[in-house]
Amino acid sequence: MVNDRGASSNAKNGDHEGASRSEVFTSHRQFLFSFTHTFIKVTKLMGYEPLTKYVVSFVVLLQISLAILLRQTSPLSFTFIFCAYAVGGTANHNLFLAIHEITHNLAFKGIAPNRLFAVFANLPIGIPYSAAFKVCLLSLFCVLTA
User: Fold this and answer.
1) Which tens digits make up the pLDDT trace of 77-116?
2) Which of 38, 67, 97, 115 has a CA 20 to 30 Å removed from the CA of 15?
3) What stretches in the chain show pLDDT beneath 50?
4) Are residues 112 and 56 in the same domain?
5) How many domains is the chain partitioned into structurally?
6) Quick one: pLDDT at residue 8?
């Protein structure tokens, strides 16, 4: 169905059918107020997270400690396989996500400390992922916005 302004409306839905103009504006005003209020709450959560550096440091030290402790263990033993799969896999995933957050400069207030900390977080992974991640992220952004 097309209204008098040429825009199509959904007669089945009938969100504002039979409502007066002031009721419609009141409901829109209430929605905009709640949306703005929620947006302000969310923006207060944005910014760097001071606990990130402690969690990442713990996970890096955990990975290095396990590597040192298991250096004499057979790679086919249950202990080695369990530690590699459960502990190592979880820790690696944690570090990949942490590097993602760090490249958005969320671990420290400055850019240089975040870059250095991303390299530190990348130590147990073995592949220099943190240096290439920012470049890949920027190139993906350039492709998406073009």
Assistant:
1) 999 999 989 999 999 999 999 998 898 888 888 888 988 9
2) 38
3) 1-2, 6-13
4) yes
5) 2
6) 47
Q: Is 62 found in the same domain as 19?
A: no
111: left (phi over 0), alpha (psi -120 to 50) or beta: alpha
Q: Where does residue 14 fall: left (phi above 0), alpha (psi -120 to 50 degrees), or beta otherwise?
A: left
Which residues face 2 on adjacent strands?
A: 8
**Residue 124 shares a structural domain with residue 57:** yes
Based on the domain organization, do 107 and 139 belong to the same domain? yes
Contact (CB, 8 A) for 100 and 130 = no
Q: Are residues 92 and 132 in the same domain?
A: yes
Q: Which structural domain, as residue segments, surrounds residue 34?
A: 1-46
